[in-house]
Amino acid sequence: MQERQATIDGVTMMLESPFIVMATQNPIEMEGTFPLPEAQLDRFMVRVKLGYPTPQEESDILLRFERESLPPPVDAVTEREELERMQESVTSVKVDDTVRAYIVEILQATRVSEALSLGASPRAGLALYKTAQARAAIDGRDFVTPDDVKALADPVLSHRVIPTSTARLRGRTTDQIIREVLEAVPVPIER
Question: In the CATH scheme, what architecture does the domain 84-184 have?
Answer without folding.
Answer: Orthogonal Bundle (1.10)
